[in-house]
Amino acid sequence: MIIFPAIDLFDGQAVRLFKGDYKNMTVYDKEPVNTALKFKNSGAEWLHVIDLEGAKSGTSKNFDVILKIKNATNLKIQTGGGIRDLKIVEHHLKSGIDRVILGTAAVTNPEFAKDAVKNFGAERIAVSVDINNNQVAIKGWQENSNLNALEFCEKISNDGVKYLISTDISRDGTLTGANVNLYDTLKKIAGLKIIASGGVKSIDDIKKLAELKIYGAIIGKAYYTGNIDIKNAIEVSI
What we know:
alpha/beta; globular; 12 strands
């Protein structure tokens, strides 16, 4: 299982939200490159970088910071937030980003993810499905799409999507533990590689997720609060 240390960006800073609430934000690093280098030194091969302003507004406001992180670390990066058309996807990939994450646009435009996979290949596209009460949330978790989450995941699999990032919003930033049952259900959808996100609080969570044999796990707040050491997480995930 691949460990994806997370960096959420707002106003050029590394921050974390509590249950997706922009009014409940903690700044952890005013220079996110420093955090990224710590992840590299801990043995990380991938980073999960989200532009929170972009997720909310639909524009890539922190893309320059993301490129600084890429250039400083030379790690593989999957990034999302504000990526809502194929031109932006192409721009990100040509700029050196390894995998682009589609969120809101993959929900509101039924053909978007399918077209992105067709144009750029399944290895370079991921879809983020943020779940709130079994439904898909959009626009930086601020709105509910009224789509059933499981049915939507099955649809994107049929559209050729290979990588699914799934966040249980009720657990994100809460350190209450990963929703193992959710990921156990999602991994049964043919063709999808699942990346777990939200609520991971301890090395025990990492071990449980690794036992599911899912593709990856994102570690966010648990690192920033000192609950999880990235090097240790990588060791137990193998």
